[in-house]
Design a protein that fits this description.
By secondary structure, the protein is of the alpha/beta class. The chain is built from ten helices and eleven strands. Helix 1 packs parallel to helix 10, helix 2 packs across helix 10 and helix 6 packs across helix 10.
């Protein structure tokens, strides 16, 4: 069994890796039909600045996923010394390239580059990460848009495992613009999955465990390794662990991957739980693949 793929759970293991492989197969079928009709394949471009280890791993996984589903992928790598102006110029060039359907700029960026400026420079029609204000605004209003990849992946995981959400109490821990806030919007929307009563908690929430223990669906996106323990989880709850932290370890890589949830104690009480790795991570990449396919289809409608 690969590191981190736990099995000692009383509840159901929400296996993101397994589901992502199934969905990749479905996307590959659609792409194959597109190509056999004489059209080009969808094309995703990624920009990677600097040498952040986690970012490099994530971008590599995106490239492999593109390969698997039949997308064209372009990776543009730049030293951490690139100026903000040079990066913005490259984004503008890609915005104007009709052969590219989706563009992502891997975060974090070096401190001399404004992440907000870069995010807002991407054409909203190619913003397959769903970070542009236009797409965030549409999401808030319940309009059709690019949903940021991690929340989109989680929604699909809940759907694929037929987790009932309507009328349930969903507690989201973490208020980032990439996960926590969009997640709270999606879980409260009039759709399935959705129709939850949502509580959004964060670092300033007092007596956090009082809220987490009330959750039928607990989504944790804090970035603090093994923060949520079994005594903070309602028996039978669905636990979605978004966190992934490299914890130093005496092994070949020098680290192990841990989620925001202490797996063993939470799995003992949860009705369903995602592992780390192999849970939300692979589904995030699926969200990105589906947004890229959607961008392609909108541009060729």
């Amino acid at each position: 069994m690969s590191e981190g793929m736990h099995q000692n759970t009383n509840g159901m293991l929400l296996n993101g890796k397994e589901q992502s492989d199934i969905i990749k197969g479905e996307i590959a079928t659609q792409v194959s039909e597109i190509v056999s009709s004489g059209k080009r394949a969808p094309h995703l471009a990624a920009i990677l600045v600097g040498e952040d280890g986690a970012s490099k791993t994530y971008v590599k996984n995106k490239e492999l996923a593109c390969q698997k589903v039949g997308f064209t992928s372009t990776l543009l790598r730049y030293d951490a010394t690139i100026t903000e102006e040079e990066l913005l110029n490259k984004i503008e060039e890609i915005n104007n390239d009709d052969e590219i359907d989706g563009l992502i700029v891997q975060l974090p960026l070096p401190s001399h580059i404004s992440e907000n400026k870069v995010t807002q420079a991407i054409n909203p029609a190619k913003d397959v990460d769903g970070f542009h204000d236009v797409n965030v605004g549409k999401l808030t209003k319940g309009e059709d848009t690019f949903i940021s990849a991690t929340p989109y992946g989680i929604i699909q995981l809940l759907d694929r495992y037929k987790i009932e959400t309507s009328g349930k109490h969903c507690v989201v821990v973490g208020r980032s613009n990439i996960v926590g806030r969009p997640m709270s919007i999606l879980m409260s929307r009039a759709d399935n999955p959705g129709n939850c009563t949502v509580t959004l908690c964060h670092s300033r929430t007092k007596n956090l465990a009082d809220f987490t223990r009330m959750a039928d669906i607990l989504i944790v996106a804090l970035g603090r390794a093994e923060f949520v323990t079994g005594d903070m989880v309602k028996p039978g709850a669905t636990v979605i662990d978004v966190g992934i932290t490299r914890v130093p370890a005496d092994n070949e890589r020098g680290y192990v991957l841990r989620g925001d949830v202490e797996f063993d104690s939470c799995a003992a009480v949860a009705g369903a739980i995602t592992p780390v790795p192999g849970g939300v991570g692979p589904m995030t990449i699926i969200g990105l693949m589906q947004n890229t396919l959607k961008s392609y289809q909108l541009r060729h409608a």
